[in-house]
Amino acid sequence: MEYNTIHKSGLRLSAIGTGCWAFGGGDYWGAQDQKDATDVVHASVANGINYFDTAEAYNEGRSESSLGVALKGLSREKLVIGTKISPSNAYAGKVEQHCEASLKRLQTDYIDIYMIHWPVHPHSIRHFTDDEKIISHPPTIGEAFETMLELQREGKIRHIGISNFGRNRMHSDIPANIPVAINQLPYNLLCRAIEFDTKPYCHENGIGIIGYMTLLQGILTGKYPSLGDIPAYQRRTRHFSSNGTPLCRHGESGFENETWQSLKAISEISVKTGICMSELSTKWAIAAGITCSLVGARNAKQLEENVKAAEGSLDNEIITTLNLVTDDLKQKLGNNFDYYENAKDDRTV
């Protein structure tokens, strides 16, 4: 397993991290057996993975609780645990309460990376609450950061992080005295918008990047023979026409032809190189200059398959070709990495 160190903060993360959203079971991913979750965590550690990612919003806190159970018996000091507070809870008087609740669910004395899940503004917040009082009088990013700074001084969190913050939002929202260590961002072969200016800004300012949706929720595994076979919940992004499912909210015509052409080209490269599509996609993400790429697993067998991507590296020629065959889609989608919203409603800016 490769490890990457963010020199500004000293954080050292495995190139692959284990995403724990499914832990605890819920409407989005379905049921999740605790034994399987525990096996995934222990297999992760056995294979050199040190980063585990969750959030208070995942399955209404059950993801954190399940991860806490799964971590029992492991050397805590060797692990890096990241969790997120919802922007609707980012008030000065609430951040500490919610941090304490996460600590209790995780059964740990400290959180390694405590992140604000989305930028703090009304449109982002309404995805976490329907309380109009909160939506109309949201917390400020300043009060959230100041409380997180105090939690850091108290040793309850080790590093301050953010998630889904675009370049302009980082530039305007992060005060000079706040040592932001990590920005968690969507990043994969079909979602490359952060390359326009957000990824360069993070690099220039010593902020690490944890990439999520590495396999675009299974679309980059090659298991779907056509776009129509992709489940409706996975067809909500701007890659797809908003007419394809009532679950979609971006209201755009999508880029289905470009998406399908990209998938076909990636599949052809997979066949030519003899590297399965999921491994190829994950290897590309690992090689793309970010700190850690998250991959989910429902059981230990899936975890073992994911870890193969950390073995060896892709030839530069393959990376160049993958970049080329997905560039048209990248340009069409543009500099908007809130893939569920149109540019007017983008929550990241």
Question: Can you describe this structure?
Answer:
By secondary structure, this protein is of the alpha/beta class. The chain has a domain at 3-217 and 285-312: Alpha-Beta Barrel (TIM Barrel). It is 36% helix and 15% strand. The protein contains 13 helices and 10 strands. The chain has helices at 34-46, 62-70, 92-106, 122-125, 132-136, 141-153, 167-173, 198-204, 256-273, 277-287, 300-307, 316-325, 327-333; strands at 3-6, 11-14, 16-19, 51-53, 80-85, 111-116, 157-163, 180-186, 208-212, 292-296. The strands form 2 sheets. Strands 3-4-5-6-7-8-9-10 form an 8-stranded parallel β-barrel, surrounded by 6 helices. It has a two-stranded antiparallel ribbon with strand order 1-2. Strand 7 (157-163), helix 7 and strand 8 form a beta-alpha-beta unit. Helix 1 crosses helix 2 and helix 2 crosses helix 3 (92-106). The longest helix has 18 residues, at 256-273. It is globular and about 55 Å long. The model has no long low-confidence stretch (mean pLDDT 94).
